[in-house]
Every structure is written in C-alpha cells, then in structure tokens.
Amino acid sequence: MSIDVHCHHFVMAESNGGFCHPKFASGLRVRWYLNQTGILNWQDAFLRRPPSREKIDELYAQKLIEQARGSTLEHIVLLAFDAVYDERGYRDLNKTRMYTPNIAIMKLRERAIASGCSKFLFGASVNPLRRDWEDELDEALESGAVLLKWLPNVMGFDPNARTQTMGRFYEKLRESGTPILMHVGFEYAVPNQNIAYSNLDRLEGPLRAGVTVIAAHCCGGRPVIDSKKMFDETKLMLVNYPNLYIDVSAMASFHRKSRFLAALADPLFSERMVFGTDYPIPVHKLAFPRAWGRDRPRNYFDQDQFIKRMYGLSASALWRGYLPLTRRLPAPVIDRAQSYI
Ligand SMILES: [Zn+2]
After folding, report:
1. How many angstroms separate the CA atoms of 62 and 66, rounded?
2. Ligand 1 centre from 7 Cα, in Å?
3. Could you tell me which of 76, 124, 33 has the C-alpha nearest to residue 305?
4. Quick one: angle between helices 53-70 and 102-114, nearest 10?
5. CB within 5 A of ion ligand 1: which residues?
6. What is d(CA 82, CA 183) in angstroms, rounded to the nearest whole number?
7. pTM of the model
8. At a CB cut-off of 8 Å and minimum separation 6, what does 332 contact?
9. For the chain, what percentages of helix, strand and coil (3-state, to nearest 5) are there?
10. Residues 101-133: pLDDT tens digits?
11. Peptide bond preceding 280: is omega within 30 degrees of 0, i.e. cis?
12. pLDDT tens for residues 5-54?
C-alpha cells in the first residue's frame, strides 16, 4: 500500500469554477509549472503564449490522470485550494491568486474513475473566514473528504486565532476525525498574504484542539541551509504533540534538501513521516547526485519517490499516510490498509 497525501489540482478558467489572478497566471512561476507538467513548451512559456484557460484546464486534468494511472502509488490525495476572504466573509478576488473549488476535485475524481483510475482521494479546502464555512465543510465531509488543505499564509487567516468560529471549526474536524494538511514555513510557489500565518507556532491552534495535523515540507525550516534552532523547535513540537505528522512534499528540491536530509537522519522525524509529492512542483533532479545516471522512472510520482527513497526515505513512509486519515477512508481502502494501520 502506498499513498501520496499532497497533490494539487489546478483549475484556471472561471467557466470551470476556478480562478487564477491575471498577474499570477502570466508570471514566471505558473509558466514554469505548466512547462514542467508538459502543458506548455519552452518557447511558448518564454514568449508568454499560453493556450486558453479552458485548454490549460483540460490538459492539466488529462496529464494528471495519465501520471496517476501510470504511477506505482495506490492512492493520491487530490487537493482543492480555497480563496482569500474579506472581513465580512466574502471571496476577495483582488487578493486571491488562485482558487480551485472542492467541486472540481470531486469532478476530476469521477472522471478518473470513469477512465479506470480510482486512485484519487478527496482533499477539501475550506477557509474558516468564509461566511458559509460550515455548509462548505459539512458538504465536503459528506462527499468523502479525507483531509482538509490549508495554506494560511496564502489564504490569509491565522490558525491560532481564538475566535468562536475557529473553536467550532476545530471541534468539527476533531469529531469527524478529519486531519488538516497545513503548509508550514517559507513559501515561494504562491504569493503570500501574511507569511507569519505559516510559522511553526501556528500549528498549535489545531493541535491543542485535538485535531490531527500533517505539517507540509517537514515544517519548512530555512531555505538551502537549514537552521539547527528551527529544526530543534520542530522536534519539540513532535515530542509535545503525538497528533502531529510531517510530509515530505516538495523536499526533492534544491532549497529544501538540507531540512530533508536532517529530518531523514532523525528517528523522531522519520517515525512521523508521510509521503507526499506536491505535484506539480518540479523535482530538482540535479540537486540529488545519487540518483544521477541511474534508470530513473519517467513518471512524476515515481521519480519523486525514487529520489527520496535513494536518500533514505523508508518504505514505511509510503504507507504511513493512511494513519492520520484512518477515520475518513472509504471502506474498501480501510479493508486493504488494515494490516498496516
Ligand atoms: Zn502544496
């Protein structure tokens, strides 16, 4: 059994229910991701000649299903991405850089199933500042969401806010056994609203409320050369909170390698480690010489796995991702995962 808990869906066209701010859409980052996923060739990426948003959405969906089907992974949690909301709880499209609604995840899952690929699990995203958060969260849970994805620094809210809403939000997650997959640390992939909202200490709000948290990117640390102090602070969090897991998404990259290697060498980190890729974030093959010259898999998910395994990621990290999701997994998955969890 193997599971990737961190894979992004991306819907750009408003006719498909998604949104991508024009500035962000034409920026270097998005063009690079589109190139890396095989949607846009180098020339068109360089000359800013993307196809229509509808066409990008269609190609993204096709490629994602193709990659998932071709991968050795058995399950992939596909993530929605909620917007930024103003103080009255309405969607703020001036501040939102991208938005992929929960319904888009359900649609892609159905499409994949119809084409014979039933690997995707539903990762919902609900910003607690939205005025209809409760309806949106209930609907996602009824529709089989296995976890909730938050990027507080990009979505613009403080997970430690001691508001009544936050209290009720956490209570619902705890009662339904729904973990939060939360971004922690620095962020280059999407522009920030407030980077402080992804500081390590922001994990304490949900953790103290008894919610299980999967902290993304081994909790971040410092880019390129990690800080010992930040590493030790993360370790202390792992000691204090048995309901905290860490994922290795985007760790096959130059600027995250230092934290990745330190985490792999530490037994406490390794015991809580779950596998994640962060698709479509590119894998930096050149930064991992041990994988050079070898017969690397071409499939994105398998290549990411291959490099991380070569640097010491244990086989157990590939199935450990089922553990925090146990109460949310559909019956057939739970039956199969039984011997592991
Ligand atoms: Zn991510």
Report:
1. 6
2. 7
3. 76
4. 50
5. 278
6. 13
7. 0.94
8. none
9. 50, 10, 40
10. 999 999 999 999 999 999 999 999 999 999 999
11. yes
12. 999 999 999 999 999 988 877 888 888 888 888 888 888 778 787 788 99
